[in-house]
Write a structure and sequence with these properties.
The chain has 562 residues and is mainly α. It has a domain of 248 residues. The chain has 22 helices and 4 strands. The longest helix has 33 residues.
């Protein structure tokens, strides 16, 4: 019979790999010839930590290599666990199932792409030159930048590993206190990563805003969690679910506590009106970090929302959840606000930030449909399947777009749309990939973005089916007889049509405008391979056997959640 530690280690292999990666990152660059003298003797023994670093470890490439290897191993171990359907509980605070393993796969894939992109965004250099008095201002600045990049390699990748560790453990949490601690571990690290490039004024400002707004949102969420503890006396999700289901009338502590926690999670997913720091954070952060926020961080927020709304406060069939109207209104406001703000954005990262806000609105509409209580178990599973599928493929075409911006950012061309002008003439493969990402974000068939939106709309319409009277005398009478859930589906369709304008604008700039900079983009081999792979999978997951396989996995994850 296996002991608890054996079972825990087997179920936490991806997280264990990340912890080993963090320790490796700390120890290897500090290996040196340091010695310590034994008290009262003249004998010194080597401790190997400190002193003059060994030549073999005095290499600025080590942190990035360790991070890439760590996330690659974590990704493949999550994939193996997903295929092997590894399930089980770890004490009374964590549970591993298809749902949690799939999200670990989402998180590690996004972090792996962040590591690859940062290798080119913040490139290390062996044996850098020290600035001399004879150097010109530009050459001295370039040398200082290289020295700074070398110095902060370890800091950056440790923070990135902390983000991954927090995200993966959060998805497995079955206790609200652990959930919040893991969420804050990931969030605090991401605040630092947003403002990591201190030499940039816009980066420091973005990091400060993101930290202040995020801290306030977290404080509100923790206060809400304390109210739930006062109400139930236990923060175990199973215990909260049981108490909620037996509650005849809504207890003020319970209702207000859940509402305050949704404020914190609303900030994490970028839902209006909690999204105010999101555009500044995306535009101020480096493109790889902005891509991480738009995909993995958003998925983390939705995991937390689903655990609160769909497990603890799970609506009964035929009974409308108390939060239904609020989430429905927030979803419509979020998608509309995000799309109209993106229409006027001239900064590509800011445009994608507002696009991310709009996508949060689409997914909140799906959650609101479940809260209506109109659907049965199968309808709810269909909607959650669509939601999980969308969060999975978002890593491809949303992050893919930020990877393209990383190439442009290395040339200083991401503060406005000029960098995208004439991109087909400079680099046709990258331009076509970017166009595929834009079309998928808009929901154009047969791309994966279309399939995910179609599934969400189909699920919402399926829930609202039969709520309107077919024999109504007038259109107005029919409109008033249809449940509000139907209008959520219509809102997604209308907002998707609006989003076409700013997504296709990117295509117009790339195909029909003259480039502001001549010459091809930098080679960046592994970054290019990643971009092309994202574009290919964006196509393959829209139609065909691969999409069916992923939908089956998402369906199993949805069933394990419920």
């Amino acid at each position: 019979m296996n002991s608890l530690s054996d079972i825990s280690l087997e179920l936490l292999i991806p997280e264990s790999i990340m912890i080993i990666g963090i320790l490796t990152m700390i120890l290897i660059p500090n290996l040196g010839d340091a010695k310590i003298r034994i008290p009262l003797t003249n004998t010194s023994v080597p401790v190997f930590i400190g002193g003059t670093r060994f030549t073999q470890v005095n290499n600025p490439f080590i942190p990035s290599i360790v991070a890439i290897i760590t996330f690659t191993l974590s990704f493949f171990m999550s994939l193996i666990m997903l295929q092997g359907a590894k399930n089980g509980e770890i004490g009374q605070i964590m549970e591993v199932n298809q749902f949690t393993t799939l999200f670990s796969l989402i998180f590690t894939s996004a972090l792996l792409m962040t590591s690859i992109a940062t290798f080119y965004r913040m490139p290390p250099k062996q044996n850098p030159e020290i600035p001399q008095d004879k150097d010109t201002e530009s050459s001295a600045s370039a040398k200082i930048r290289i020295l700074m990049n070398n110095r902060r390699q370890v800091d950056f990748y440790i923070l990135l590993l902390m983000v991954g560790l927090g995200m993966c453990l959060m998805s497995k949490s079955t206790h609200l206190f652990l959930l919040f601690v893991c969420l804050e571990l990931a969030s605090l690290s991401s605040y630092v990563l947003v403002g990591f490039y201190k030499e940039s004024d816009i980066g420091g400002e973005a990091g400060t805003k993101y930290f202040i707004v995020g801290s306030v949102a977290s404080a509100i969420g923790i206060y809400g969690m304390s109210l739930l503890y006062l109400w139930n006396g236990n923060l175990q999700i199973d215990s909260l679910t049981s108490s909620w289901s037996t509650m005849e009338n809504l207890d003020p502590f319970a209702g207000i506590g859940v509402g305050l926690m949704l404020v914190a999670f609303g900030f994490k997913v970028g839902a209006a009106p909690f999204h105010l720091a999101t555009p500044d954070a995306y535009s101020g952060a480096s493109s790889p970090i902005a891509g991480l926020l738009a995909t993995a961080s958003k998925a983390m927020g939705f995991v937390a929302i689903m655990k609160i709304l769909l497990i603890i406060t799970s609506p009964e069939e035929g009974v409308e959840a108390y939060w239904f109207i609020a989430i429905a209104l927030i979803s419509v406001i979020t998608m509309t606000w995000g799309n109209f703000a993106a229409l006027t954005s001239v900064n590509p990262k800011r445009m994608l930030a507002y696009s991310s806000v709009a996508h949060a609105g689409y997914m909140l509409a799906a959650i609101a449909a479940i809260g209506s209580g109109l659907g049965d178990y199968n309808s709810n599973v269909l909607i959650i399947t669509a939601l999980i599928f969308h969060l999975t493929i978002l890593v491809l075409f949303k992050f893919g777009a930020f990877l393209v911006l990383t190439l442009l950012e290395n040339e200083g061309l991401t503060h406005n749309m000029d960098g995208l002008k004439g991109l087909t003439r400079r680099d046709p493969v990258i331009a076509i990939s970017m166009f595929i990402f834009m079309l998928s974000l808009a929901g154009i068939p047969p791309l994966s973005g279309f399939l995910s939106k179609l599934l969400m709309i189909n699920g919402i319409v399926n829930v609202s089916a039969g709520t309107g009277s077919v024999s109504s005398a007038t259109v107005l009478t029919w409109m008033t007889s249809v449940n509000v859930v139907f209008w959520l589906a219509l809102s997604i369709v209308i907002n998707s049509a609006i989003s076409l304008f700013y997504y296709l604008r990117v295509g117009l700039l790339m195909f029909f405008e003259e480039p502001v900079v001549e010459g091809p983009l930098a080679k960046s081999i592994y970054l290019r391979i990643t971009i092309i792979a994202c574009a290919i999978f964006t196509l393959l997951l829209g139609i065909g056997p691969l999409s069916e396989s992923l939908l089956e996995i998402a369906n199993e994850a949805a069933q394990s959640l419920l």
